[in-house]
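TL;DR need structure tokens for one chain.
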Amino acid sequence: MHIVGAGFSNMDDRIQRRFDELADNAESIASTRREKTTHVPGSEPFVRGTRGTPDRTFTNTFVDPILVVQWQTSVSSLFSRVFANHDPTFQRFADACKANLNSALSFDIQRSIFRAAKEDFEGGYLFDIQNLVHSDVFIDELEQAKHFLDKGFKVPAAVIAGTVLETTLRRMCDTHSGLTPSDNINAMNNDLYTANVYGKASNKQVGSWGDIRNDAAHGRPDEFDPKQVSQMIDGVRDFVAKHIK
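>> reply
TL;DR here they are.
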């Protein structure tokens, strides 16, 4: 059986791998850098005794615009997973992408934002991503619980859903000052309720799910039925969506 939590590092690895791929793509774009020099001839003075304009030379540096668009799209997709839409990094990159597509200077600015985001991720400074990873993995686990239940295996389905619930509560306790994560669903449930993280209705519902999980884990399958497990899976899914953002 797949264990809840085993997918966390896999998700992080996929994000890291995508950062690395896009960094390589940026190198490829940089290699298309080329210069274009434009010569503008000067002019004679219109009025005797005044100066005309001298000859002028402008040099602009460009990169391949098609590759830039592809890279921007992929980076934006990655950032939408790693950052909230209102995050300064997400917004800064979106603003930078509005500039001239084939301008090397514009691309260098976008690339510097990307590098900063990559360094923050690798340094463990992105906190929203942890919630996104947990949420995605939990949904996968609950789909597995649903699969077991559909096949008639209510006990493993209840155990998986209960483990998702326990891990969610532990993470909630870890992110709220003064609360201590534990291996006891009831204890964490009561602590979160006492700390006003959620209300009485949620406290009662979490307690009910905890009872089902305990019965399933301790060989008491007659204490619950498939309908209750199905409702538990749906309820835990909504609970994760609400509290792990």
